[in-house]
């Protein structure tokens, strides 16, 4: 099973679709449990594969965003612990310069992906609020408050 998972996540098209898988082999070499984490993520989200999507899910990217969040949080916790606690505040003498650049580039790439996803979610929420506000404007109940983002 591990071999098959590695074959799949080594596919360049998969790395394009799920950018959080980029550099997985570099991370694995540093001791990050990539395959075990992917299996855990798959188990956590397997029941949502048939999840009915709406505009809020940003065109079926909901699971990709959630998997990216889950993987990235584990990744950042692991490497922050290794680099700060064990190696001491990113001392470049302890890691290869090229690896350090890859890790920094990876952080920026994933954070930009998540930022864009959250911005799309906020746009969708605003649309929903506007639609619900318009639907409810015919009610005479003045106790209903509408919040804008």
The overall average pLDDT, rounded, is 81
Helix/strand order, N-terminal first: HHHHHH
Helix content: 55-70%
Structural class based on helices, strands and sheet pairing: mainly alpha
CA-atom Rg in angstroms:
20 Å
Number of domains: 1
Give an overview in words.
The structure is a single chain. Residues 55-59 have low confidence and may be disordered. Helices cover 66% and strands 0% of the residues. The protein is built from six helices and no strands. It is mostly helical and 149 residues long. The protein has one domain (2-136).
What's the short version?
With 149 residues, the chain is mainly α. It is 66% helix and 0% strand. The protein has six helices and no strands.
Architecture blueprint of SSEs:
Layout (H helix, E strand, L loop, with lengths): L1 H9 L1 H6 L6 H6 L4 H12 L16 H25 L10 H40 L13
Helix pairs in contact: 4-5, 5-6
